Amino acid sequence: MAIAEFTVVPIGTSSTSLSSYVAAMHRVLEEEQAKGTVTFHLSAMSTIVEGPLEHLMNVVLRVHEVPFEMGAGRVSTSVKIDDRRDKPGASVEQKLQSVYSKLK
């Protein structure tokens, strides 16, 4: 399993508010999660998705298209991928627990 963190920024919109774009992108993520292909965690600055790498890339591509579908003239998407293959991949929760256990 891989983990990807991504941020999608619509450019050329009529407003500085982006919450309607984020909500529309969130719906795409919910659809994918309902299919069981990925899980996701939304934060104030980015989104983290977990699942097979091929599914993550497809989800990022789908979400990247949403602002265009809503009329944005340009979209900038940044992606970071953690794809560990030397042993079974850890989930976001497992990674956090590993750090928290060392803080005690």
From TrEMBL:
Pfam families (alphabetical): Thiamine_BP
Biased composition (Polar residues): 94-104
InterPro entries: MTH1187/YkoF-like, Thiamine_BP, UPF0045_domain
Domain of life: Bacteria
Annotated region (Disordered), positions in chain: 78-104
Boundaries of every Thiamine-binding protein domain copy: 4-99
Membership in a protein family: Belongs to the UPF0045 family.
Protein name in the entry: MTH1187 family thiamine-binding protein
Protein's organism: Paenibacillus chartarius
